Amino acid sequence: MVDNLGPGASGLILFNMEHPPLDNWLVRAAIAYGIDRSEVAAAFGTDSYVVNNSVVPTTWLYGTDEGVPLYDYNPELAKKLLAAAGYPDGLHLQSYTSTRDFYRTQFEVVQAQLKRIGIDLELIVVDHTTFHANQRENMNDLIIFGNGGWNGEQHLWSFWYSTADISSPEGYLGYAHYGNIGGSIDAFLDAAVGQSVEVKAELYKRAQQKILLDLAGYPTIRSSNVCVRQSYVDMGYTPKNQTTGSFYNLSWKMRLLKH
User: Fold this and answer.
1) Could you state, in order of their start, the residue ranges of all structural domains in the chain?
2) Could you tell me the pTM of the whole model?
3) Looking only at Cα atoms, what is the longest distance across the chain?
């Protein structure tokens, strides 16, 4: 028996808003509408990859897709948005991609999709260490990041708070330069400090909604961990997504059935 368990890892596109024309919301929206997430997930050839609609997956702590704009695949609208942004004949972008499948597969599918709407995404394949180093040097127009943090609170502070900007002295994962360019969720995160789980959940939901309204980033897929057991192994509960880890929980309820 196979169980696909979360919270799993997420795929996320970040728009480098320090690189024109990605400072233009219309261009970012054209890219979002030009991407078919179901096709990205299907490219991995397994049901452990599914579409992810929010920057914090629903299987993570504080994850939600409630009220977030989805930007469902609409290539004709994408072309109109590009034209409205001043690029009726398309544009050229450049990004480095890791040789690792999680990154390269997503990038290559997105590259083919964006070509259909007139965007030429040039991909330069490098080893994984160089890939991350080049991102730190602010060399990518589009950044694809894989995150398995499981904690939505940590994710929001690490990627989207103003001081997370990689150009800041204490910058961490702010590759989009959000908070310094294009918008901010600082007020929501600051207000959440010291609050109850319930209050935090509401504030973090509003933060995720704003990130996607501003289109600082665009979630792509979520992958789960594939756990395998014999059919006669009764775990004593129904394995499902959990925020404590992508694995089986062993307990005294577990038993072996007759086989």
Assistant:
1) 2-256
2) 0.88
3) 68
Containing 105, the helix (H) or strand (E) segment is: helix 101-116
SS3 assignment, position 139: coil
Output the DSSP codes for 47-85.
Answer: TTEEE--SSS-TTSBT---TT-------HHHHHHHHHHT
Overall residue count recorded for the chain in this entry: 259
Closest by CA to 63, choosing from 53, 48, 51, 50, is 53
Give every CB contact of residue 211 below 8 A, 6+ residues apart in sequence: 55, 160, 178, 183, 185, 217
CATH architecture designation of domain 2-256: Roll (3.10)
C-alpha closest to that of 116 among 70, 172, 73: 73
Residue in 20, 14, 31 with CA at minimum distance from that of residue 110 = 31
On whether the CB atoms of residues 155 and 59 are closer than 8 A, the answer is no
pLDDT tens per residue across span 183-236: 799 999 999 999 999 999 999 999 999 999 999 999 999 886 666 767 777 767
CA pair distance 224, 222, nearest whole angstrom? 7
